[in-house]
Amino acid sequence: IVELLLQYCANPNLYNQFGKTALHRAVVSYTNENIDHFQTLLDAGADPNIQDRNQRLPLDEAVIANKPDMMEVLLSHDRTLVQRAYRAAIIASRLGHNKCLITLFNHGMDPNITDQTQTTPLHVAVRSLKLSTVQLLIANGANQNIANNRYETALSIAEQIHPDQRRNFMNILVDSPPTTSLKSHTSTIGKNIENIPSNIYPLLHNHKNWTMETDEYRSQTAESSSVQNLLDISNQTYWCSTQSNNAWVTYDFKHEHNINGIRIIGCGNPSTPKNGHIDVSNALNGPWLKVKDFTCFPSEENKNDFFFPSLITRFIRVFILDNYGGDDIRIQGIAFFGVDMRLVNLLQEYGLENKLNTLLRNGINDPETLDENRDEILNSSDKYLHVNDHFQFIHLTESLKSPQLTFLEWHNPPQTTVIAGEKLQTFSVVGDEGITDRVKLEEQRNITYI
């Protein structure tokens, strides 16, 4: 019907008694399946800058309806619209519509955008008790020290929150420094992460070989406990370090990952972790560089999330300085917010790097999850892919069916010195999960007779 009316020169900018145009109504009424019709209105001259009687733009209506895909169409159609996104950012922060905020950030919105009252989205998110939204704003550079025209900062607003919730907000505002834009950012260990979006990534799926039951990977552990309990954050099992302070666990992701946050789930007693720091390195045994101090606060779920400027690394160490008075340190689980760089490289290889934002918004942050969602992506073209990208995506997923060996290292190294005639001790290597490639062990003739 829309196309028929436009064919007969209907004016797409007519408005009703409430000042709402066809775009205002379409944002609320249309689903993602109708997004092509929405684009048709814009192509026919519908103006996304017309306000209704409540001074709301169609962009604001899209935020209220929590429709980031509609926002994407509007912001892509008019690249200057993000400069008038203050009301949209305020609404998203008040309602906790984080995906809408991420869409605004991906189009360059200033996280400290204000109006004449100097009220920022961070002020509103704290006042509205939207903890995850506060984390998102801080991670994208929101300044917790900006004062509005009532001389309130985000910190002073947080100080007025009920004590049961105050500590979580203060932890984020005090301990999480604002990050910078990542479009030309260099990570802590020297890897350029250009073209990776600046937002909080989804949680990565832990792999069973990311940390191991050896002294290289963890501090002293109780006999009845396993450090690999940390890898299942949904399970009610714990890693128990016999030390009440200076306990640590090291993760080897096997590949480079872009990490910008961590989730630590403690326990409901004094052995739960308190203070600590996150370290990164280029090797399993260090040397280590500290990137984030943190304090875990006890809560009903014992869950604490911490965020920091994105960095690309393979090795991360979680160092627990102390607890709340227990004889040992017990942690139920540790998980990381990030994206597997193999996914980023794959998308770049097949010319699909502009789809990374969309995949991350839908929780797809590694090749395995991409492969699991292959059919949904191909069958939901307007949600994930443009029609011209289908064949490239098919080629990409076909390549996942033949996984390649990307790393190989000693698990039990061979002896370096033996006596002639003696049998060599058993040695072994470890590589990617699921890889069955044959490898060749070559003899290096460097023999010294003693």
Automatic annotation (TrEMBL):
Family matches, as Gene3D superfamilies: Ankyrin repeat-containing domain (1.25.40.20), Galactose-binding domain-like (2.60.120.260)
InterPro entries: Ank_Repeat/CDKN_Inhibitor, Ankyrin_rpt, Ankyrin_rpt-contain_sf, FA58C, Galactose-bd-like_sf
Any single Pfam family the record assigns to this protein: F5_F8_type_C
Domain F5/8 type C: 186-339
The entry's keywords: ANK repeat, Repeat
Spans of repeat ANK: 18-53, 117-149
Protein name: F5/8 type C domain-containing protein
